[in-house]
Amino acid sequence: MRRLSLSALALVVVLVGAHTFVWRGAGQRLQSGFASWVALRRAEGWTVTTGTPAYGGWPLAATLTVPDFSLAGAQADIPGGLTFGGERAVLAVSLLHPRLLTVSFVGGQHVRLGGLPDIPFRADSLYGSFPLIPGARSADIDATNLRAGLPFAEGSAGSVTIALMRAHFETKPAAPQGEPAISFSGSAEDIALSPRPAPAPPSWPLGDHVASVSVEGAVDGPLPRAPDLVARATGWRDGGGTLEIHRLAVGWGPLGLTGSATLALDERLQPMGAASVRMVGQVEALDTLAANHAITQRAAMAAKAVLSLMTHQPEGGGTPEVVVPLTLQKQVLSMGRIPLARIADWIWPSAP
Fold first, then answer.
1. How far apart are CA 168 and CA 163, in angstroms?
2. Residue 131 domain-assigned (yes or no)
3. Which residue of 95, 132, 236, 248 sits 20 to 30 Å from the alpha carbon of 157, by its own alpha carbon?
4. Cα separation of 334 and 341, whole Å?
5. How many CA atoms lie within 13 A of 266 on its CB side?
């Protein structure tokens, strides 16, 4: 019996030792992978700063906790660049799923795009998932109870809360014409908007609650590498590049909207395209817009008169709906053959 107990104890020691060896190996790979990522970003011109990383996660995962991180760069791709940072990021590889890296963002974070105001945010849960497979270029982002600042004019600020948000991206920069170089999908549910500051009306055009927003689409390739945005946009246009919105769905206040669109660039590198939009609740939405002073009562009445001519009853009954064809050409947005608005020219930034 004593010999059996010693054998069992020896087996436990061997198993624990083997597990610790595997865990240490995973931790070392995580450490070297993060160091390589930082070096590569810096070689590309990014500024990366972090506090001292701490390793842990035993026994089920290898983790690397990175405090006080910041990332700034991409001036060649985004006018004014991109800045992102926060209190703490936790990189983790589960020993049960060693080909998947998760990055959790803990505490307060912030992001700034170009010359836009800095946006602070935090969430109960916010993480990204990235496959550790050669050739894989995809990411999944998930967040619950995301709370972000909402900058307004003249330095005032509000807030937006998103109960649930999900996004998925896949990239294939060398994709030929007709194939997606970037595929994306995303959704957000139960969005609460804070009141707007004066002198704007405090209510949002369709109310302060957005039930849901979802989008699926793709950018068809190829995506050329060029020294500035104008050259890249020109190469993308000349290569037959298009932005396909396969499905867009919005539920905001009384309005339900679904649609699809195809967009491209014309000879002046201005957006052009066509879309089809299906709406329900349009009459109530126009009344809400007028009540919240987004449009005048006269404009609401005129719009309802036009939309009434386009309203039809779905087969089998249901809520009356409107299908609206939209086109954008030579900076004019039209509904069918009726011009609605002239869109201001997109000003492309000059090369640095």
1. 17
2. no
3. 248
4. 7
5. 13
H-state helical runs in the chain: 2-43, 229-238, 282-291, 297-308
292: its two tokens: 């919240």
DSSP string, 159-188: EEEEEEEEEEEEE-TTPPBTSEEEEEEEEE
94 and 217 co-located in one domain? no
Token pair, residue 283, equals: 């009459």
Within a domain: 69: yes
327/343 Cα distance (integer angstroms): 12
Same domain? 169 vs 289: yes
Tracing tokens 């160091």 back to the chain, one arrives at 35
280-305: pLDDT as tens digits: 998 898 899 888 888 888 888 888 88
Q: Tell me how far apart the alpha carbons of residues 210 and 253 are, in angstroms, rounded to a whole number.
A: 6
Q: Which domain holds residue 61?
A: 1-123
Q: Is the Cβ–Cβ distance between 228 and 351 less than 8 Å? A: yes
Q: What is the pTM of this model?
A: 0.85
Confidence at 143, pLDDT banded by 50, 70, 90: very high
CB-CB contact of 91 with 73 (8 Å): no
Distance (Å, whole) CA 187 – CA 248: 10
Residue pair 82/113 in contact (Cβ under 8 Å)? The answer is yes
Residue 69 to residues 48, 86, 112, 142, Cα–Cα distance (Å): 7, 6, 15, 20
Cβ-contact 89, 75 below 8 angstroms: no
If one counts the domains in the chain, the total is: 2
